[in-house]
Give the backbone structure.
Amino acid sequence: MTGAATFYVTTPIYYVNDKPHIGHAYTTLACDVIARFKRLDGFDVKFLTGTDEHGQKVEKSAEAAGLAPLELANRNSANFRELAGILGCSNDDFIRTTEDRHRIACQALWNELVKRGEIYLGAYEGWYSVRDEAFYGEDELIAGTGGTKLAPTGAPVEWVKEPSYFFRLSAWQDRLLKWYEEQPDCVGPASRRNEVMSFVKGGLQDLSVSRTSFKWGIPVPGDDAHIMYVWLDALTNYITAVGYPDTSGGYARYWPNVLHMVGKDIVRFHAVYWPAFLMAAGLAPPRRVFAHGWWTNEGQKISKSVGNVIDPLTLIETYGLDQVRYFMLREVPFGNDGDFSHRAMVNRMNGELANDYGNLAQRVLSMIAKNCGGTVPSPGPISDDDRELLDAGYGLLGRLREAIDRQLYHEALEAIWVVVRAGNGYVDRQAPWGLKKTDPARMATVLWVLAETIRLLALATQPFMPTSSGRMLDQLAVSADRRHYGCFDSVNALKAGTPLPAPQGVFPRFVEDAAAG
Ligand code: MSP
């Protein structure tokens, strides 16, 4: 793979105070799809996920559970690692912020910032939210019940007064604004970029980057009384994983061509603090930060106190992995908030997957098995109708590239389904079942056109639904080395006479349990 263009994609690293839920699964899936797509498209890809294990929030949760922080972290980090496997994720690395490689990277970054005069010692007095692990200005707070003050996220805040090191964030305002202007794709979607720009235009305060009131974190080099602010620690994971402070190997190869996928609640950390830390250390800021929206459950905000948290494992057991992957990236325009409902899930599963896509493949493959001796049929002259469907299929890759590069997963899937629907329209018009007696040569052509279209569709759906698409490609006898996007053309079309295995349905329908009503 040397010489191939590189692509680095990261999930946020997840706090180990909690169990994995639908929000974690969503970000990780979105990263997996783009990682798979880019690999199929010939890129040298690195896909990173992991866990954020330090800070007061984790320390407090451990205390409440009667565990040492590292014990809690070990236990819960394993759950996130396991989730990545269950989601079928193709991550190349899983980072834990309690690893040595990460402490080394954080301390090296800190030393570099100190050396460049970007960090100074002072004292912090102000509001802090442990739940958000964030400092808030008085003007940002909202009124809670009984005269209490809350963070803008609704999280409790406490007054903190302690010695602290500060990062000269205020000095980076103009250079950040220049970055947003010169690299308009650095933050997506555009609405988030605007939000970030107006926050920065509103003026930046120096940022407290160390704490002295607890112990669970990475010590500040040369001043053990201070623990690094958990967000400085956490964000650094993205360069730890490419080998920082060594800037030759992985770093030189993958940085800064990176996409940080994040939820909308953590854009400020990724699109303001992180690029400022990097630039201040003389390192390049990330190529792009993309923020997705939040899921609700049957119209309701998801919260532990309401008890409506969606467990991704239950979803997968109920509907199937590829079905859940498809639904999550199809249902909601990526970047917007969306609602999970059983009804919407079943509609997509039964309508688009089982009926539109699954039936098309199943009908065509069974006709080929019955009428063409179980081998790829031999096409004769190609009609205009045939050409139109084939061209729609071959044209798909360009559309997918455009949509995926802008993280518009729903548009990529819609483009694929335009071809699925065109395939169904074509079968109805050409009615190959009626041609068996009247014109078997034409029947063979129609079935070949359809089989070739299914090959293209299955190539296209691989990043979204790897297992089902793989099974479809197996049924078309497409070998493993011909599933990458260099084969998305007519040169690699199905060869007449290739023996095909017996067809099997790939997308089951969801049948409601009558007893459960
Ligand atoms: N540890 C930090 C990230 C550090 S990255 C250097 C963190 N962790 S988290 O576990 O709380 O959150 C992880 C992600 O889950 C965030 O991107 C957040 O937006 C996402 N979600 C949490 N609830 C969600 C929904 N209900 N819906 C969609 N995503 C949501 O933040």
